[in-house]
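Problem 12. The chain below contains 170 residues. Write out its predicted structure in token notation.
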Amino acid sequence: MTCVIVNDACCLIDLDKGGLLDVICALPYRLVVPLPVRESELLRISDSQWRQLDGAGLVTHDLMPEEVGLALDLKSRRPALSANDCFCYVTAVVHSGILLTGDALLRKVASADGLRVHGVLWLVDELDKAGVCPRKLLVEALRLWRADATVFLPKQEIADRLTRLAGVAL
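Solution.
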């Protein structure tokens, strides 16, 4: 059975900024995005990029009414979570998947409930481990994220990965 990764909006945004959206579907995972997240106005992913991702195997999960109910219940218990955070959480539960998020509260809630949670830096490690893209591309993404004030990834973890990857990539 293929492991599922449920992507939230902030991770998709960071992956797009880092130029890694095109390569994530090459990983040995089934990538899923909840429909409300895909349709979010926060995402600047073009229709052609979505078609390319769909063609590469990305799955858009249209939540069933009972799943929407679970998300609304979570939202009522955890009002600080966004509706899209709740949709991602429920989608990860439904698919018994890994939740890929950069949102601290969502990470905390999901981890406390026993969900596997990772962020885009873990995905960089997975891309490197799988060898599905040049290390130079990963180094470029890390450098872009480090320089972007709107990307909130741990600077030390970025630096650690740059040290590990840059010597081989350049």
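Discussion. Residues 14 and 150 are 9 Å apart (CA to CA). Students who got a different answer should revisit the alignment rule from Section 12.3.
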